Amino acid sequence: MKRPHLLLPLITLCLTGCGHSPNVFDPQGPAARGIAQLGWLLVGLGSAVFLLVMGLLGYALFHRRSPAPDLATEHLRGPSATTRRWVLLGGVVLPALILAIVLVFTITVLRAISATTPNAELTIEVNGRQWWWEVHYPTQQITTANEIHIPVGQPVRVVLKAGDVIHSFWVPDLHGKLDMIPGQTNEFWLQADHPGEYWGECAEFCGIQHAKMNFVVVAERAEVFAGWLERARQPALTPSDPLLQTGQRIFLNSPCAYCHAIQGTAAVGNLGPDLTHLASRRTLAAGALPNTRQQLASWIVDPHQIKPGNLMPASPHYTEPELQALLAYLLSLQ
Ligand code: CUA
After folding, report:
1. CA 24 / ligand 1 centre spacing (Å)
2. Which atom of ligand 1 sits closest to the CA of residue 205?
3. Interval between CA 38 and ligand 1 midpoint (Å)
């Protein structure tokens, strides 16, 4: 019975160590709240039934009828009226009542959280890839990655797809999980009560880097969100600084441009994340690294050190000045 005591600090350590700790017991949106309430109801009813059964068992064990009944004659007489009542009440009526309560609450919550939202003003398409998230705002013609901006306090329609294998989209603070299946489109919605950052993760094993497939939902007040949309819609600026120009030339003449897109340049690849506003994002490599100059350098030179098996080839051939110019250019992509 020691194990839970060892596990708890370990889990706590991991959650704090990972820097963000989504918590299904602390819902931050209407859908997650419905799921949490249903969860607590199930835990409550389950605990009540457990205590009741244990209580009756204890009673039966410690309050033996005396003198001991003659089992042979009792068997011949059949169960008494009291025994019949106990079996009927505890074995039929009570379970039926509890299951009916659970059924009604489950159907109510499921209806509320799985309903598509015809009144959602914003639609976002999220495409699960090994091992990152392509995020597309079809009406606004915006493509980004691993970061989903939404306006706070209103439902946002989310269309889920998969580019290669099955993934599962999960923002524990805001909603339950929904699978992303190649060749199929699934749909649900997200809504956050308050502005903030809500971490999401892939909840379906999708290959060796499944654990490093995270993303963040950034819920913003309407005017802040409108500002983000406006910036995200802009193509990258053509650099005037010579260092940035060199960096851009290196990028466009390297294999980078075959897989990544930077709007406003000749790079239109769609195998990897869109980099048009790379510098504005919080993380690199789908939450695996903070977005800093040092980490970006490590990622470009040897991405397999950080996420073994990912599709981005290593680029150890850049000279130091080349790498610095490339970094300067990429970090100018606000
Ligand atoms: Cu994608 Cu697990």
Report:
1. 19
2. 2
3. 26
Please tell me the distance between residue 205's alpha carbon and the centre of ligand 1 in angstroms. Answer: 5
Strand partners of residue 178: 169
> pLDDT digit of tens for each residue in the chain (334 aa)?
344 444 444 444 444 444 467 888 889 999 999 999 999 999 999 999 999 999 989 998 988 666 666 666 666 777 788 888 988 998 899 999 999 999 999 999 998 888 666 678 899 999 999 999 999 999 999 999 999 999 999 999 999 999 999 999 999 999 999 999 999 999 989 999 999 999 999 999 999 999 999 999 999 999 999 999 999 999 998 999 999 999 999 999 999 999 999 999 999 998 999 999 999 999 999 999 999 999 999 999 999 999 999 999 999 899 999 999 999 999 999 9
| Helix runs in 63-178, H state only | 71-77, 81-88, 94-114
Structure tokens at 315: 């680029």
- Residue nearest ligand 1's atom 1 by CA: 167
Question: How far is residue 40's CA from residue 25's CA, in Å, rounded to a whole number?
Answer: 9
Ligand 1 center to 164 CA (angstroms): 10
